[in-house]
Amino acid sequence: MLPIREMLAKTGLTEQQWRVLRVLSEFGPQDATELSERACLLLPSLTRMVRSMAEKGLITREQDQSDRRRQMLAITDAGQRIIDDNYEQGLRVVEGFKARLGEDKYEQLLDLLELFSDPPERKS
Prior knowledge:
Oligomer: single chain
Strand order of the largest sheet: 1-3-2
Strand content: 5-15%
Shape: globular
Radius of gyration: 16 Å
CATH class of the domain at 2-85: Mainly Alpha
């Protein structure tokens, strides 16, 4: 979406990377599977993104102590600073969406988007 891309232009982040930081900021450390579902990203895409974001110092990867196969991902201070520095502008973007759609349609849009973050039900 153009307003978000414009907001992120100075950060060098993509919309997908922004979502990763937002999810980690809001929900705290989590494994890649949880993060991919909450950020609405395919796991292979997230895996590539995580490597790049870790190299930039925006997130950390640590092996889960209870399950060595899992990596726990967390936002760093540098990643949180990007979230904090763009908070006010992010609010203005949301207010712009609400102004265009109206409160009811905006809430309906969020509800519909939430459907994408729920794992699909498997049919037997």
